[in-house]
Please model this.
Amino acid sequence: MADENTLKAELRTEFGKGAARRIRADNKIPAVIYGHGTEPQHVTLPGHEVMLIIRKANAVLDLDIAGKSQLALVKDVQKDPVRQIIEHLDLIVVRKGEKVTVDVPVHVTGEPAGDAIYTVDTATITVEAEATHIPESFSVSVEGLEEGTQILASEVELPKGTTLIADPETLIVNVTAPQAVDLGESEETEGEEAEGDVVESDESAEDAPASDEGDN
Model:
């Protein structure tokens, strides 16, 4: 485990919304650790350090809980939808050498050939990996690929010790021709012609001789 993932966790004795607000006001984050048949442990973690660590997907924390080391995988991050402040973490107990199933994000590099473009059809790939060696992301290159090329999950290179769990036929990246964009020029032209017809009609009315009724 990297040193930056090592955190000191404090056991919590107060619960409820009021207690959680006080914890966050102190720049800390409430969390719960569960799994492997153990009793859930409610802890408080240092806010700034946690925010730096969980920028990477599937972060594993090495927690110091009352002098005892505990590895825990970040399972769920609950954030305030407006302020994006971390409100709570769900952590799962893991052990060294243990295999875990996780969704690893896909990172696309390069540019396709010519005017072709690519779309990411599936943003993450489900794999099984050792808890302390979870890949940060999978790199998929589209450099020089022609339109019509498709990259499936089975074609993504996985590091040693990582096993594909997702359907091998899952479409990850699709290289296609750019779609023509209709700017509505034909409609604008028709509108201009229609407007021209109205103007011409008005001018014709002005040039027409007055009716006999108007002279009476």
User: Anything to note?
Assistant: The first helix runs from residue 17 to 25. The chain has a mean pLDDT of 86. The radius of gyration is 31 Å. The first strand starts at residue 6 and ends at 11.
